[in-house]
Amino acid sequence: MNTPGTSVSGYVLLLTIQFVFLVVFGICTGYDDDLRPRNGTQAEEGFIIPKYPHFQDIHVMIFIGFGFLMTFLKRYGYSATGLNLFVAALCVQWAILMRGFFDMENGIIKLSLDDIIGADIATASVLISMGALLGRITPIQLLIMGLFEIVLFATNEFLQIELMKIVDIGGSITVHAFGAYFGLAVSFALRPTKENAKAGELEGASYTSDIFAMVGSVFLWIFWPSFNSALVDGPEQERAILHTYLSLAACTVTTFVVSALVSKDNKLDMVHVQNSTLAGGVAVGSVVNLLIHPVGAVVIGTVAGALSVVGYRYLSPKMLEKGRIADTCGVHNLHGMPAVASAIFSAIFAYFATKDAYGDSLYTIFPGMKNSSMEEGEHEIIIGGFGRSSQQQAGYQLLGILITLSIAIVGGLFTGLALKLPNFKQLQYNEMHKDDVYWETPDGHHHEN
Amino acid sequence: MNTPGTSVSGYVLLLTIQFVFLVVFGICTGYDDDLRPRNGTQAEEGFIIPKYPHFQDIHVMIFIGFGFLMTFLKRYGYSATGLNLFVAALCVQWAILMRGFFDMENGIIKLSLDDIIGADIATASVLISMGALLGRITPIQLLIMGLFEIVLFATNEFLQIELMKIVDIGGSITVHAFGAYFGLAVSFALRPTKENAKAGELEGASYTSDIFAMVGSVFLWIFWPSFNSALVDGPEQERAILHTYLSLAACTVTTFVVSALVSKDNKLDMVHVQNSTLAGGVAVGSVVNLLIHPVGAVVIGTVAGALSVVGYRYLSPKMLEKGRIADTCGVHNLHGMPAVASAIFSAIFAYFATKDAYGDSLYTIFPGMKNSSMEEGEHEIIIGGFGRSSQQQAGYQLLGILITLSIAIVGGLFTGLALKLPNFKQLQYNEMHKDDVYWETPDGHHHEN
Amino acid sequence: MNTPGTSVSGYVLLLTIQFVFLVVFGICTGYDDDLRPRNGTQAEEGFIIPKYPHFQDIHVMIFIGFGFLMTFLKRYGYSATGLNLFVAALCVQWAILMRGFFDMENGIIKLSLDDIIGADIATASVLISMGALLGRITPIQLLIMGLFEIVLFATNEFLQIELMKIVDIGGSITVHAFGAYFGLAVSFALRPTKENAKAGELEGASYTSDIFAMVGSVFLWIFWPSFNSALVDGPEQERAILHTYLSLAACTVTTFVVSALVSKDNKLDMVHVQNSTLAGGVAVGSVVNLLIHPVGAVVIGTVAGALSVVGYRYLSPKMLEKGRIADTCGVHNLHGMPAVASAIFSAIFAYFATKDAYGDSLYTIFPGMKNSSMEEGEHEIIIGGFGRSSQQQAGYQLLGILITLSIAIVGGLFTGLALKLPNFKQLQYNEMHKDDVYWETPDGHHHEN
Lengths: 449, 449, 449
Fold this sequence. Notes:
RhesusRHD (chains A, B, C), 2 strands, ammonium channel activity (chains A, B, C), NH4_transpt_AmtB-like_dom (chains A, B, C), homotrimer
């Protein structure tokens, strides 16, 4: 009787990291001015924190949505819900700090609701990567991967949004593409031997686990409009809500139909239903606040659903067999390809953006198109300078996705190689997708169908 | 081995419909003025879309609530959660268009959050009908039924609310009664042969499926105050929240007690717990913004719970055996009877509504009671004219439910007959309530308990 | 074949109580002025009820969170979700009335959203007590216990908050400590015989039931910031959100690590994951609006997670074996000890609270520190008088937890003795943790793992 779950040194390392976080929180953080006591006796009652409902919706997506979506494996439900919580709880703290380092005042990160919204969104990228690797790495490897990824995520996000003024309100470029290709690159670095480049024995659903996965999937579907609209206000926010809703609805119908048409005996496939129905939320992400017209959202959703199902049916098996890139949840089909499509859509819509259509909001939506004379306050420096034309902005959108993919892939390969170091226990083929290795289970040997 | 799930032509038809929707969105829709860019550099930050949290609560009800409530069948969980999503995704698009056709400006439906709230609510009526037919018709039949139903729903809603100025803020008349009796009429049109007029072999719960159903039931319970208060503002909204809360609480206690008292060995029955506890939300729907006093809500909830449990225990089995009307989820007991009760309550409270009690809000709550001189702007035309007395308004409330029932029943019978056309594959008795017919399942033959 | 579930007289008693509630609602309640029709034709559209999103989050915690957290037992899922709903539906009505009796105007309790938020929070204390006793008492005993507990809860809450001006925004003292020790005292009064002072045969999880429990646990985790911030506004509210978020994140990481370190073979334990991850929300509750600095929240969460896991691993088994105090859900480790810790933290932070740090908000946060000259309107009378120093306020915080514990323990013992009266059927050892005793189940004898 060996104890394959044991990795005391790994858990001690994580405890140490938590203590380091504690110290850094002590030294480097403080309250945003909005959170400080105000003098004068103005009535605070009825004061509303405008983004709080949006935050809570996103919070449900991160902790219930991702966690339960990953319960589809028949014998990995403790890990799906539990490790999702563990990884996210570690990463949100790290994301608050890492993102904060790019925006300190006098050496202090001034915390407010915005920071925890940002931390939740950053953590989504790690959970996407986790989907690619689900059941194939140890909890310790997963958590270390998350810490590496947050560093690169925060850097790339700052580069894209602050320095390059890329438009990406729904995070398709910075979150979905980044998370998916980072995870796939890690997966490639950890690729199995040729004889093991096939789906594991436990890499499938049971009847019950598939229904648990719908809890996650449907909550992601429901709250995606909040994810895509949390970072804008006013008319942009309401457009983002409407577009995401329409894109998801059209995507869902397309997913079901295409799933039936490409499947054996024309039966519906729960993998498609759980995942591809969400691709419309990803694919509309980078253009969600633009004037894409309602029909634009419907078109994007339709394309995304079809693309995603086809990816699950034809591409993923090939990637595993030929490329030895495992992708347990198929994040390439749900997050990867739809996000790249979204970036391309964003270049197209930026290309045709005019002052006539957007009015003054052209410059708040595309801040890179402001004249330098229109900048307020301290002179920001952005890559390539202000005063871009629509065509130039389109170019920057494409540059944004290219740089993001490069950072994600190189960073993922590097991270994957690090996780192969002998310091880390590697999972054996017969330990994959199996809670019993790391969890006390009521019935260590029994597998339900 | 035939392939009973195959219905390529049906799925192709649905894809065609989705493309037609796409074209109509392109031609007939645009943004509401609130969603258009605004000129001038007013700060949009902190701007709140007031109904967005309500929308998200309703969205949870439609996609998690209804979807999981229907998972109670032991072998129909993929269909419950999956087809609920499919049907709803198709119907919300169609509802946006159909409802929009009644409110176009220069041939354009101007979209905003209100339209997707309305679309979600309209879709609830289809999901209620689906409950009556759950497991008894094919996915294609279900979707076609939904398309028919939305046409009639939108027409009846416009007739009741705009032309007849019926009071029905919680949608008991236009949504619950309509959806329930439409579904029951379809069920009657598709009634089984005499020997099959009994519960199917798989028409029951497993221990696990019953707990899944509680996910749906409890989320419906929790967010019902949002459903009932989404279309009003100010004091009316807060009253609607309070009344729904009290009615549901009283209904729930009554449901448990009556369930134990009428059941075998005085044991509790999960069917009652999952469904009848919600009847209080339906029964208070049409009066939810009126001055019914808190005790009015408690009384209504108590009556609704008892009525609903008694319906499940004694009426539904009779309807199936004698009338050959199948009602898998018992929507007659959860939505049908409580909604008719709500309409009657609305007539009673309208009858006694006075200017003394309501002040100026009498005319916003009961717009038909305005003097014609009080109409603002363009002169609306309503059936029977403005300036109704309380007694006349009460009459219109009763007329409203009668017309609604007529449209629902005639429309449902017609739709049911259409679904019996030989173009549609009909489910055989032994194919009912069985995911395996339409889904790839991990274990096509095994049935859990 | 006897019918152990039968208790007609109990259910009739509950129906009688529901009718009494109905009468009392009729006589003693009315609308708050905010819910009454307003004259003048001000536009109500866009009016927002500020606390409604918070209410709905708390509502999810009470009905989904607590209900599903308790589904972890392999054969008690109907009771967990069903009785949670039953108990809560009864107790919210009673809590509206009992809490209202302390705040009547001319003999009328004027109802608004605040009352149902308060009722939900009060009910949390009963559900916590239910956790200690889960599966060990009959539904009738449970409901009667809830009615007793609400009386004491409302009295103690009034005493602490209104008369003693204790700071306890997150309810750690008034809700968590009260509910936990009340439940444990009931459990002690009903303690088993020596030979039965061990975990029951069915007192454990199945693979599926553990995942259901995660639905509840994660929703509690997600919405805890709303629970802890619902009763404050402005900067205090945003601090409460931030602190709860940080405390839970740090607590979760600590929980996983300590769980692995203290468990057999260093495997993770779902009991800890489901429960101890939440202890950070409890432990920060009484100080959640104070200026504890972000690092204070991280420290508190870290301490709470470790304390809670250690409690589950070492203390609870001892309490059962030596003290014969059963605690099915381990509420002592999730609610009891962390809440006492929170009270101590509140005394410490009160001790060091200064006008320099808090500005004018010192007197809204610690109303007992106001000079009597600063009281507005009618002169309130508080225990010990106004004008407390920081040190005195710290003393009152400690006094608050001591009095709360005394009331909870004495009240719980008394309640437990009442539940042992021969009028009540007592569960036998072999009837414990078993739905089949009180529910119609699809398979009365089969037990899944």
